[in-house]
Every structure is written in structure tokens, then in C-alpha cells.
């Protein structure tokens, strides 16, 4: 089982392609996208939880390897990854491989996450390189050095390992996408068409028509 957490504010083709490619490379039937309720590292979100969930459901219709979990949205509290991987570990059992997907930029800042050194007691990490990515901070690099395995071997471990994926680079973030929407651009190449229509109808992210 693989988890992909985030605010998805809004979900975009970069999220979807990366998750789909991760499922294929890791030999997984499904990747579960887990939208957060309250992100600890962000001041606020731009769309309501119900709107972000609706956009995810609409987007996943074209991606057979992807599904969505409402668990974090139902908790009514700040969404810490540790709580989520503990919850999903109980579901899959002690011996099953549980993978948490993240971008390279998240791994670079992993030492700022809540009880970050406990996370690999419950899951593995599979990490997407990002265009132009730089080295890990020395503290994180020392911690990760002995934990690296190939992505082919990752599913042999229930938890405690890190693998690097080879996904197609898409230079896009939700922040950049919101800026494009607010300035009147039609980001049809970055968003599934149904999502753009929903954003227009809901007048999200500064879109007025």
C-alpha cells in the first residue's frame, strides 16, 4: 500500500502523473491519496475540504491506480503524517509493505516534521526527484544514508527504508497554478478539464468566470 499526502489545493496533473508512475514502478495496485485537514506547515488553505475532496474524486476517474482516503479530513485536527501512517499501519498489519510518497523537497525538510525520526517505524519512503533538486541537508543525509534501497527492493520491507523513484519531471506546483488561475490564464495542460470547470463554477482561487 502506498500513501500520498498533501493539501491538493488544487490537485493537478503533476500530482496525478507522479502518483500513477509511482504505482507502476513500485509494482502496486493502488496509491491512496490522503488530503489533509489542517496542514501543520501552511497558514491556511484556499479551498474548503469538501471542495478539495470533490476535485480529487473528479480527477481520479481517469487514473485506475489511484484512490482517495477521507481519513485525515475526518479527524478535525492538524494533519500530522505520523498519525496517518500509524492509522494505515494498523489497517495493513505489521508485515505488509507500507510506502509514503513524497517529493525531494519534502525529504529535504523532513527534520521539521512532527516526530520525524519515528515515521520510518511505520512506513517506507519513496521519493520523487524534483527538477533542479539540490543535496540534502547534512543532518538528513547522514540519517538517510544507510536506509537507501532500490525501488525494486522496497516492497520487501514493511518499513524503515527509502527509495528514489524515476518519474517524469513536471515543473508545476499548486502555488504556481493558483497564481495562473488568479491572473486569468487557462491552465488546461496542468489541470483535468473537469477540474477547471469546477473551479470556475465554484469561483475558487480568484477565478471569476
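Sequence proposed for the structure above (209 residues):
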Amino acid at each position: 500500500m502506498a500513501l500520498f499526502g498533501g493539501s491538493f489545493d488544487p490537485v493537478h496533473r503533476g500530482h496525478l502523473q507522479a502518483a500513477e508512475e509511482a504505482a507502476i514502478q513500485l509494482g502496486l495496485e493502488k496509491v491512496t491519496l490522503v488530503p489533509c485537514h489542517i496542514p501543520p506547515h501552511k497558514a491556511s488553505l484556499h479551498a474548503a475540504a469538501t471542495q478539495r475532496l470533490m476535485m480529487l474524486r473528479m480527477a481520479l476517474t481517469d487514473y485506475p491506480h489511484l484512490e482517495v482516503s477521507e481519513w485525515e479530513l475526518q479527524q478535525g485536527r492538524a494533519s500530522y503524517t505520523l498519525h496517518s501512517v500509524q492509522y494505515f499501519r494498523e489497517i495493513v498489519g505489521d508485515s505488509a509493505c507500507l510506502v509514503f510518497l513524497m517529493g525531494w523537497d519534502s525529504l529535504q525538510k523532513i527534520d521539521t516534521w512532527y516526530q520525524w525520526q519515528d515515521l520510518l517505524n511505520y512506513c517506507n519512503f519513496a521519493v520523487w526527484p524534483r527538477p533542479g533538486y539540490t543535496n540534502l541537508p547534512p543532518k538528513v543525509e547522514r540519517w538517510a544514508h544507510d536506509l537507501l534501497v532500490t525501488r525494486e527492493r522496497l516492497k520487501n520491507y514493511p518499513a524503515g527504508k527509502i527509495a528514489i523513484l524515476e518519474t517524469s519531471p513536471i515543473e508545476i506546483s499548486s502555488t504556481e497554478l493558483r497564481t495562473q488561475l488568479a491572473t486569468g490564464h487557462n491552465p488546461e495542460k496542468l489541470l483535468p478539464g473537469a477540474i477547471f470547470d469546477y473551479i470556475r463554477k465554484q469561483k475558487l482561487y480568484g477565478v471569476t468566470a
